[in-house]
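Shipment paperwork, digital attachment
Item: protein structure file
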Amino acid sequence: MFENPQDRSEFTTVEVASSLLSEIEVVPQEHEVAQPEARGFELPGRIWLGMISCYALFLASMLAALGSSGKAILSISVSIVYVVIFFAVARTVVAQNPSKGASPLDRNGLLMTHFGPMDRKAVYGQILVVPMAIAFFGMVASLIIVLAGNPA
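Attachment content:
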């Protein structure tokens, strides 16, 4: 192919194929407007603050109860790094979304989900139930450790 640039025998099939393409009619398609990408979570800042507070309470109670052990401090430090990374990634995703103003929960009290609208109480309950359970577990576990008088 590259030895003789004047030899164009391999291009004859292309010319035949181009003559066939003239018989194909392109059907005009209607252009649908694509829905813009939603990169935010549409949650008010109070929910984020509640989640951060619950995880901070859990980690602080674990640190207070188990702070004398080097292995525990290492585990708690790794957990702190994971929590910081989790919220930093969420913050980065939210920062890439153009500002839309207030959350739908603050505007009309409903948040649209894939399964339909959710009111404020349902959103708060579903999002904060796990962080609150983790904070409660941390406080109870540290209380038991302190009352037993035997920190790890």
